[in-house]
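Final report, closing paragraph on structural work. Over the funding period we assembled a curated collection of sequence-structure pairs, and we close with a single example.
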Amino acid sequence: MRLRLLFSFLLVCLAGPAFSQVLINGKSYTVDECLAMAKEAEEKGHYREATNYLNQTAFYVWDQKMFDEGISYFMKSIELNEKIKNSSGIATINSNLGMLYHDKGDYNEALAYFSKALEARKKMRETYAVVSTMINMSYSLNKLKRYDDAIALIEEALPIAGEIDDRDQLLAAYGLLFETYELKGDAKKSMEYFEIYRSIHNAISLEEEVKAEVEIQQSQYEARLAEVAKKNKELELALKEKELEKTQQELGAVDSTNKELLEQFSKYELLVSNLEQQEQIKALEQEHLQSQLDREREVRIYFIIGLILAGAILIVVFFFYRHNLRMNRLLRVRNEQVEAQAQKLKDENIIRTKLLSVISHDLRSPLSSVHLMVQLLKTNAFSPEQASIYLTNLDDSLRNTFALLDNILYWAKSQLNGIKATPEVFNISHILDENTLLIESGLKTKNIRLVNNVGEVEVYADREITKMVLRNILSNALKFTPVDGKITVSVEPQGKDLVVSIADTGIGIPPEKQDKIFTSNITSTSGTKNEPSSGMGLMLSRDFIKRTGGKIWFESEVGKGTTFYITLPLSKEE
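Its predicted structure, as stored:
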């Protein structure tokens, strides 16, 4: 059987490796202490708090293979949830009971509780949970050798997963169909569903075409950019020379006109002087005085004319000076715009180049491995046990690849059309449950314990953006936490916001690399088990969390781990 770990991919995270005490909100308690606190909370009417203690205790004893005790604690939790009419919580516990009975080997009881959970999920229209429950039920049906019932249930789940475009669940469903037909003995049908995986190989040839096209566009863009810069410089020089020439010509014309007027004024003044002398000789005293008055009046007129001409010259000079200033300002603004546009195009080109490098590095390896594995499987080169191990590793690699593709699609959508946040009220614990299902296989593979301290709390934000951000942070924590590590998710209200913290016991971030987190420094790195990581997810998370009204930051110490924090607005009611 080649997909033995498929069911574990869908399980809700349990307590992880064995511990002597139950961890709740970062504190350790014994089972008896948890039960005592649950009873005390119930007596006070704090039913949600009581169910939290009961659920955490049930997870702990379940992990210790104490199945009957876990069942009793879950059943008590259902009673308390019924008192507060918490339908979502009851559905979740029924799903947990289904998985617990499955672990116990009681597959009929598992189906009964899965059915209750499925009915509730359908009423609440929780599409993702509906598909997950159907797949879990199909796995239990396979254990009972009810292969036709399992196939019918998976085929019912497939169109639902297609409507919400959830490729992870589609992949899980097709994988389970492949396994079920193999168990049923229908090799032809089994291979038909397995061939769906082969479609991913088309991405390799598409990558080469995209890379060649981008290189051509890049060289064309650089040539156009150089030509535009050259033409701008030539235009600027020609404009300055033309303005200078025009100003000199106009000033020369003004000086010539002024000079001619002064010469005429001198000639006329000399003529008047001669006439006055002749009049002084021939005329009487009275005529002499009258001529003096006329002369003074004419001098005043010429003086006024001179002032007018001087003012006109000043106005012309001021006009050309102001015109030159305006043209210079326009040139500066235009140059700044061209430089800003050129820098923006350069930055975008750098990001595209890095993105191509990441695609080439992080997509080629897992897809090539899938291709090689399919070819080897055709030749029956592996035993069933070896094939199961190799397929498990490929499954983890492909999940990381799909996560990278999701981030690339988000980035492309934001670049082309923009992404607008659409806030709504939703329960953040549901988002964390969905994301936990996506990384469950990786947690099991690395034996990492995920401690979920998040209770029932609502926020007012964009659901899909929040889901993407939390998925990226959880995936990073999984990649950079070594085997037998721990990831802790907690929440804490602060004023009008809810602070979500995701802490890991991983390798930490070196101080010299911390300033590059959340930037466009897209560089392919590897996790503790060579998982690929480009850093693109954190860059997108920083941009998108701002759009939903929140913040993101982190604290890290090499060798001790990293804690990421995000804030989300609380619901309108709060």
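DSSP finds 17 helices and eleven strands in the chain. Residues 190 and 217 are 44 Å apart (CA to CA). We thank the funder for supporting this effort.
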